[in-house]
Amino acid sequence: MLKYLKTHEWAKIEAGIAVVGISDHAQSQLGDIVFVELPRKGLKVKAGERLATVESTKAAAEVYAPLSGEVIEVNNAVIASPQLLNESPQDKGWIARIKISRLEEAQTLLDEKAYQEFIKAEKH
């Protein structure tokens, strides 16, 4: 099950590890993504801090860490093929895996229904 930030990142949490990426809504707003700057493996992040940067033909956007922890893996495939974030943002286009240090932070993230409601409210 995916959890979301209001800044349009998602986290899939399993066994103390969060796979993180940008939401489908975020990629559609950005347009064609042409560059991704990944975090370095071993980087310690706090929830809400910058994790990565994506650049599209329209704009550059920061990607924020949904949870605190240590980056244990990055998806190098998105360096060679940044369009993966457009084509498969919640599968092949993931950005990083974080070993979660504060699992209780997951309670502050939005579920799918709350995230969809947030997007609708944001449009009005």
Task: Offer a quick outline of the entry.
The chain is α+β, with helices and mostly antiparallel strands.
Which residue ranges are poorly predicted, with pLDDT under 50 across at least 5 consecutive positions?
none
Number of helices: 4
The overall average pLDDT, rounded, is 96
Proportion of residues in extended strands: 35-45%
- State the fourth-level CATH superfamily: RNA polymerase II/Efflux pump adaptor protein, barrel-sandwich hybrid domain
Write the topology of this structure.
Elements (H helix, E strand, L loop, with lengths): L1 E3 L4 E6 L2 E6 L1 H7 L2 E5 L6 E2 L4 E7 L3 E5 L4 E6 L2 H4 L3 H4 L8 E5 L11 H12 L1
Antiparallel strand pairs: 1-2, 2-3, 3-9, 4-6, 5-8, 6-7, 8-9
Describe the structure.
With 124 residues, the chain is α+β, with helices and mostly antiparallel strands. The protein has one domain (2-112): RNA polymerase II/Efflux pump adaptor protein, barrel-sandwich hybrid domain (OB fold (Dihydrolipoamide Acetyltransferase, E2P)), CATH 2.40.50. It has 4 helices and 9 strands, in the order E-E-E-H-E-E-E-E-E-H-H-E-H. Strand 2 and strand 3 form a beta hairpin. The radius of gyration is 13 Å and the shape is globular. The model has no long low-confidence stretch (mean pLDDT 96).
